[in-house]
Amino acid sequence: MKMNFTARQMRVYDQVKETAEKKLAKFDKFFGDDAEMDITFSMPNDLERVEITIRADGMVFRAEEADKTFANAIDAATEALERQIRKNKTRLQKKLKSGAFDIINDDLGDEYEEEFVQEIRTKTFPFKPMNVEEAILQMNMLGHDFFVFKDADTLETCVVYKRKRGGYGLIVPE
Q: What Å distances lie between residue 5 and 30, 40, 42, 76, 93, CA to CA?
């Protein structure tokens, strides 16, 4: 798996990169050689934050954790990624590397599997074309964290969302 390191408004020391490589090497058993892992380091508000994104076979796994040290943040993010993989074990088995789940304790996988079987609530609403500003206004009026809309200019289905650090984000299909 290819690992890409990025530092936002700071310098990451080689020792931190080596620690991250060692701790994240365990994901090689789940993903093939064509998978990519992006590790981003930053230090907002006197905390050390690590964002890990894994792209493999059209799927994206992401975890973001902040702690007093990068090592602790990496550990927490690694655990979060493992939980995501375990929780979706049977659905992922077809897409990930063969034999990747032989090493996971089946008891944990079954616990998550049973938890997922639940009723799915379906909502419908009219899709009227609108611009991004109008979609943000609608989202805020509804009190939601995201809003799906059809862009008036491109007629593509898009999503606007509130960002944790403030501001808004826009997801546009490729």
A: 20, 6, 11, 18, 28
Annotation: CATH topology of 2-116: Double Stranded RNA Binding Domain (3.30.160)
Count, residues in the chain: 174
Cα–Cα dist 30/109, whole Å: 15
Q: Is the pTM of this model over 0.70?
A: no
For each successive 10 residues of the chain (174 residues), what is the average pLDDT? 88 88 86 86 88 83 90 92 78 58 46 58 81 89 88 93 92 92
Copy the structure tokens of residue 43.
């230090």
Burial class from Cβ neighbours inside 10 Å (0-12, 13-18, 19+) for residue 63 reads: buried
C-alpha 146 chain-centroid distance: 16
Query: What is the structure's pLDDT at 104?
Result: 47
CA dist 53 and 37 (Å) reads: 6
Do the beta carbons of residue 65 and residue 77 sit within 8 Å?
yes
Q: For the chain, which residues make up each domain, given as ranges?
A: 2-116, 129-171
CATH topology of domain 129-171: SHC Adaptor Protein (3.30.505)
